[in-house]
């Protein structure tokens, strides 16, 4: 019993026992409340890092705690194993992506098991397994049937040298990350999912995400980007064509002095004047070579060319020039913008550069020159009074215009709408446009349909064939999965490797039996991670989404939605948005009932060392394996939880790790010294305790309350662990002071305190807790014990300090028995000598009492 704390021996012992006993294996049990705890699954890169450790340990503490609270806890793990890194590794190391991926999964799984994480490995999923991606394909077919999947031409980043499409993150300073060739834009047929069809619900339901961080909700809202405004048609002069623009500032339409189109706008072929065709064509080709993020960056140079054609402003009937500009994208709005230089800074800079006209139509409400107009009554206003020249425009600094005024204000130079404030003017102009049939109210979203086509190998094949007779033909469900061929040469050049596999590409049309070819694009890996949390509900090898269509699957009904989701803030937009989108689609298909996938979300902070995020390039990486070998999983877990609250960045400290290790060693030695008890804690007689024993009992229950509330309230694990450290010190002091006593009650209270310490320590450092629990002669796993409950009567202090105020100002503090009645507190306060100096013969109007805290005497 006196052997030193041997973390290697203890941790390997209990990991094997948990695995052999299936301690964390779960099934649906309607008689018990469920709790679905989930951390974002990793890409199998080969090694876990400290960010992984922190993320997974946070989830494990929650899962273990909820299990001890009586919940039926689902805590699964899997692998986000498709994706470009595997292809890059195949090129670099001359291996197959499947071999590289599966070897990494095996290695990382051993690492996770060494952390003592309470996963139900019977529910493990691997997204590159045909058993999984078969259901990616099945979902695609169902989405296609609903009209939510379609194919269209779209601009992509294209490397001429590698002959491949590049993701945005593969374009570095406008060049290919692999060969440094300048990247161009190319139009390709791409598959899209209609996420825009769910934009309104995705946005409105943000207000129902009560368990999500406000920061993440704001990021989601901004990404979806609702804009309410008006679509207005600008006729093209001398043509039967119209340019539709969308604007949220229709109050400025009288200041629209030109129109700009995206270089990709289809109307250009019809409206560009023959004299300008060469100039426009050259400009379009130039812009295709620009990265779209650079094009739209606010600091980038604004470039454009005149088309030679004119549009008619439908409100002024003026002829205004039509330009093509680099900052306009087809993906946003309608691909056309009405430009108001005085009230949009981008338009202002463009107009200044190319000498285009500007007209003031809004002036600040508090402008020194025009403020008096605002006070005029409506019936005496006339548009004549609100005609001003550009040189008259005064800014807030009383200087001539040097930049656009983009704020609200008074409408001027706007005919019958002059004199209105912006808000009212927008409403009146919207009504006018609809009444005249030249426009309509509209809601636009920044969110655009999700392009899922990837011209690469390591991903889910899209289940579509192309037939010369039948066109686009979905692969029948009976033929799923469409298997990804393993015999492939990956060079990184020449487009998708699947294009060169005749046996894969050439196939038979399911409808007419004629010759056909397969789709060689694979799916974006975000598809894999958009529903994996639903796959866990079925269990490994048992996924059957089809069964949920005919009968509401009991596993999905029981487990979904996820109660607690945990992952990095870097996934706050796309992954979470796509997961929400898929959940809503699967709800509408009849697979799930819930509207949202995750009830609560915790975004943990980064692990920082030497003032920077851990990375190989900075040379500040801490290898978790070295940490596990030297200190053990329990120490690693404890430090990662104790060093900072979960949502904050964790500053790495070698001294902090040592401190956590010393604490566990102290607990080990303390329990070893006191492990042979003559009585059980159940024999404790709380009425027969002396003052010292009662003080320890109160400390135990204070700690139970503190640790419980810290876990329940925003997962303040750091302060919970601090409370456990305090309790261990109290127990150690008690043992030192009473070590010669033979009291049975002393023995019972000590055993009780130690057992409560072990129970509360177990979610944080489970291996040592199991070992100490066993050392004390307990037969049941500590992980299966019920979480302790505090006794309100025991945590109530015998005396409390009560503040006495007179007219809200502090005059005295008195010690009173805890729980004293209002009358007792009032009487004691009025008798205080210090208080009587300020009450004297004054009339007492009121006495306000807050029990155990405050008495405020109001006098006059």
- Give the termini separation: 72 Å
Q: Biggest β-sheet: count, sense, barrel?
A: 4 strands, parallel
Can you tell me the residue ranges where pLDDT is under 50 for at least 5 consecutive residues?
368-382, 391-399
Task: Please report the number of helical segments.
Answer: 28
Structural class: alpha+beta
Q: Order of strands in the sheet with the most strands?
A: 2-1-24-25
Beta-strand level of the residues, as a percent range?
Answer: 15-25%
What's the count of strands?
32
Summarize the structure.
The chain is of the alpha+beta class and 860 residues long.
Q: How would you characterize this protein structure?
A:
The chain has 860 residues and is an alpha+beta fold. The chain is 36% helix and 19% strand. It is globular. A hairpin with a 3-residue loop joins strand 31 and strand 32. Strands 2-1-24-25 form a four-stranded parallel β-sheet, with helices on one face. Strands 4-3-7-17 form a four-stranded antiparallel β-sheet. Strands 11-12-10-13 form a four-stranded mixed β-sheet.
Topology:
Elements: H1 7-21, E1 34-39, H2 50-68, E2 72-74, H3 84-93, H4 97-114, H5 130-145, E3 149-159, E4 164-166, E5 171-172, E6 175-176, E7 184-193, H6 199-204, H7 214-224, E8 226-235, E9 242-247, E10 258-261, H8 268-271, H9 277-288, H10 292-296, E11 304-312, E12 319-325, E13 336-339, H11 345-354, E14 362-363, H12 371-374, E15 410-411, H13 422-436, E16 439-445, E17 450-451, E18 453-454, E19 464-467, E20 471-474, H14 502-505, E21 506-508, E22 515-518, E23 522-523, H15 532-535, H16 545-550, H17 554-559, E24 562-568, H18 574-589, E25 598-604, E26 607-609, E27 612-613, H19 624-630, H20 633-642, E28 650-651, H21 654-673, H22 691-712, H23 717-737, H24 744-761, H25 766-775, H26 792-795, E29 799-806, E30 809-817, H27 822-831, H28 833-839, E31 844-850, E32 854-859
Parallel strand pairs: 1-2, 1-24, 10-12, 24-25, 26-28, 29-32
Antiparallel strand pairs: 3-4, 3-7, 5-6, 7-17, 8-9, 8-16, 10-13, 11-12, 14-15, 18-23, 19-20, 19-22, 21-22, 26-27, 29-30, 31-32
